[in-house]
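Structure ticket #2291
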Amino acid sequence: MMFVDPTIGSGGIGYGAGGINPGAQVPFGSLRLGPDTALGDRDIVLSFQHFGGYTHSDNRLRAFSHTHLVGAGVGDYGNFGVVPIRFGDNPSENVLRAALLEPANRTLPFDHLEEHALPGHYSLGLPSIGVQADVAAAGTHAGVHEYAYQAHEGSCGLIFDTCHNAAATASWCANATIALEADLAGASLTVRASVRMAGSLSRRADSGSVPIYFHGTLTSLGDARLDVWRLWESEQLLAVGARAANGSHSLGALIRVPCGTTVRLTAAISWISAEQAEATEAVQLPSNTSVSSAAAAARASWAALMSGVEVIDAADASTDELTKFHSAVYRTFLAPSTWSEPALDGSQHYLGMDGELRRLGQRADDTRERALTDMSLWDTHRTLLPWLSLTQPTVYEDTVRSLQAMGEEGGDVPRWPLANVYADCMIGNHAAVVLAEAMAKGHTRFNASSMYDMLALQATTPRHHAGRKAVEDWVRLGYVPHEAGKDDCH
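Resolution: structure written out below.
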């Protein structure tokens, strides 16, 4: 663990970039709580450098968000942005409008010397506004923020941007909502939010977007009172006193935080419902969960997972070699993402590829510990998955069984599932390779006959979500003519 550097793989150009966000997550977690960044005074966000929301050459923080792709060559997610802010005393309406309605105006300079990333924990000093930011993963769908504000004569706040995303693309945000409710003493605020995410892959859902829900509790760690300052929607500030908003492209809230205060935000996400997000917060964020306690628990889970990989004669290896190796091992346990979400009764639920709510294990042959998704099979069938079959056989079998479930629920075994979406990215039918390898290695916690029948159907019959193309030519001729097109020949 001491050699893991989560920032490795977070730089590079275009498809040579790792696309890794150095933020906090537990192994195979869906919540990936980390920084989204931009470059220079003009706050440049180049899409091909920000598939994970962050690139190491950047020098400005846009926000901390809760969902990120891992190593993908396409942009999506980066949902529910949170960022501290500081104004002069009694900021005018124009100052508030500029900060809230123009996200580029609220980015913050940072230095990598103020940045510290560990498995499950990320911290960043923001001296330009006198704030220390710390975030940690607390579970597969939950995490914790803490922001320590230095004393200052001006006004301090915390922005919650429902429409924030990794690519700074307003059109990705549709039908967003936010609602805030204060307790009687004003020491805490409940934050409920949702968005229809329409990123590069999520917009390929039949509905054109994927719903994501947020439930969180913002608490003052002292005696300070927290107030809802202003809300905005659809590029308009709402009247003072507004506590809820809904709209598309631009929506969020500014919360007043007395300077000199430390605040904690416990955060849970769900792809099922607002009620499920609230249940997840209750299950994965027990009372008084802090960044330090969540980080310690996450660190322990990472240590247990990585203890199965040992370097023989490590004394002969350099620090650089050990850092590269252990950091690479760490990254192999970031994805796929746990898709099943915890219920209050201890069960797990998830949305099938048909949009129906399902309980893990409701079928006798479903022995998964978790449902999994976000599988770039084009990339992972010959690298990541064989590695998991050796190092994490339970996760590997859960992956194969999840592919089976997706095929049975949605009609086709996917070639690149994102959430419960047939993203239909890239070409080929690599799930067949995954099935063949699993059978050859003796893995049995899936129904090979069911998988074979579905894959055989996709190989012989045109299917809407199949990876094979020009199937009619293949069946009729026994080959695919070159004239059909280069993609059809795969």
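Closing remark: The domain at 14-300 is CATH 2.70.98.10 (Beta-galactosidase; Chain A, domain 5).
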